[in-house]
Write a structure and sequence with these properties.
A hairpin with a 2-residue loop joins strand 3 and strand 4. The protein folds into two domains: about 290 residues, Rossmann fold (3-Layer(aba) Sandwich); about 110 residues. The protein has 15 helices and 15 strands. The protein has an eight-stranded mixed beta sheet, with no helix packed on it. Strands 1-10-11-14-15 form a five-stranded parallel beta sheet, sandwiched between helices. A two-stranded antiparallel ribbon has the order 12-13.
Length: about 425
């Protein structure tokens, strides 16, 4: 897979986002520093009946104080086992208890260590294991909302779905990026986003001009927040046809289609979005009312030259594990993103910006006016560049050109 992704190598200098990558969240990126990483830190293990949504780098707390970090989650003898790195100041009895807690309804989960009612005189030490009998978890959001189903509008499950969808709104995504920069101990960064990553990148640059000194947009040109929200646009567009973004709004509908055959889904999406697909095979963002989204898929006779069997197998395996719900939820926040950002109405990007897309990118069919007017919306446009013969996946289709363009841009800052 590495050959097809060589176009991303440069982007360690900034931050790269792609809605179509298998993104597991910032919590899975190894973070330096913090409690549990200094001299004298020690490791203990915790057996858990369920790790819920816990991740590597989740916090460990004692009496609500951040004292360490989850460094690993493994399966030992069919028991989920956490490796916790604790600060040297943590002094707990050897029979300490462990629970998975959550900071708020949609907040991050953490491990909470505590003294039991009858503490052992011996202290917890490096290499010790807190056994299954001393561990548990607070009720999850799902369990809590299910128990409140009678008083929540429409019942527990539908409201849970709404809450989970809302977690993907643009301000939460920008907060993730700011949190990543802070966690890396940096004050300034250059941010580069592809596809759905582009609006996350430009919103980050609009809100935190102090942090982001440069902006790279791939495929999707910056367009200021319009006076009318997407819902009105959908209404006018879908009278006689299906528009894919509107089709994605119903929870579970398109996921079922995409997940029925993940290999077929990935192959079609990658091929039909690329510059290698002839006009009749290109991605259909508008399709007939009597069609499903999956009915528009086209499978090529052979892979495009930039896509290997190894790449495809990797993508397929990743999405078989994660499903498509997370990525599709980004689309379910179009209207919400518009509603919560009135302060960005008509905003211009003032940070130096570079834009690139393939001249056969289907996104330009939808955002062509945005590309034409980019100079009016970006105060300091370094360059806007169309790559002949390339489609939507430009960092894979034309990695060398994208690398060179971004290198030139970074040198100009």
């Amino acid at each position: 897979m590495y050959r097809a992704w060589q176009g991303l190598a440069l982007l360690v200098a900034g931050l790269v986002l792609s809605s179509c990558a298998s993104w597991h969240g910032i919590a899975n990126v190894s973070m330096p520093g913090g409690p549990g990483s200094g001299a004298g830190a020690y490791t203990v293990y915790v057996q858990m009946p369920d790790t819920l949504a816990l991740n590597d780098n989740s916090r460990v707390r004692v009496a609500d104080v951040f004292v360490g970090t989850v460094r690993g989650i493994t399966l030992k003898n069919w028991v989920a086992t956490l490796a916790l790195s604790l600060d040297k100041s943590v002094k707990l009895p050897s029979n300490a208890t462990a629970k998975i807690g959550q900071t708020s309804l949609l907040g991050s989960q953490h491990v909470e260590l505590a003294r039991p009612p009858n503490p052992s005189p011996e202290l917890l030490k490096d290499g010790d294991t807190i056994p299954l009998k001393n561990s548990s978890a607070y009720p999850t959001t799902e369990q809590t909302l299910a128990s409140l189903a009678l008083i929540l509008r429409g019942g527990g499950v539908p409201n849970l779905e709404v809450l989970q969808n809302e977690a993907y709104n643009i301000l939460n995504l920008v907060s993730d990026i700011v949190g990543l920069v802070n966690a890396l101990g940096q004050e300034r960064a250059v941010i580069v986003g592809h596809d759905w990553g582009a609006p996350v990148a430009w919103t980050s640059a609009l809100i935190r001009t102090d942090m982001f000194r440069g902006l790279g947009l791939l495929s999707v040109p910056y367009v200021p927040r319009p006076p009318v929200g997407p819902a009105a646009y959908y209404t006018a567009l879908i009278e006689h046809k299906n528009f894919y973004q509107d089709y994605f709004q119903e929870p579970g509908k398109v996921e079922k289609e995409l997940e029925a055959d993940v290999h077929r889904t990935m192959l079609s999406v990658l091929y039909t979005g690329s510059g290698d697909a002839p006009a009749e095979d290109r991605f259909k963002f508008i399709f007939e009312k009597n069609q499903r989204f999956a009915d528009t898929f086209v499978i090529p006779d052979q892979l495009p030259p930039w896509l290997t069997e190894q790449d495809l197998a990797f993508f397929t395996n990743e999405f078989k594990q994660t499903g498509f719900r997370g990525g599709i939820n980004w689309y379910r926040n179009f209207q919400r993103n518009w509603e919560i950002t009135p302060f960005l109405d008509g905003a211009k990007v003032i940070r130096p910006t570079v834009f690139a897309a393939g001249d056969l990118d289907i996104v330009l069919d939808m955002t062509g006016e945005g590309y034409k007017n980019l100079e009016n919306h970006v105060a300091n446009l370094f360059k806007k560049h169309l790559i002949p013969g390339a489609g939507h996946w430009i960092q894979q289709e034309r990695p060398n050109e994208i690398n060179q363009l971004l290198i030139d841009f970074l040198r100009s800052l």
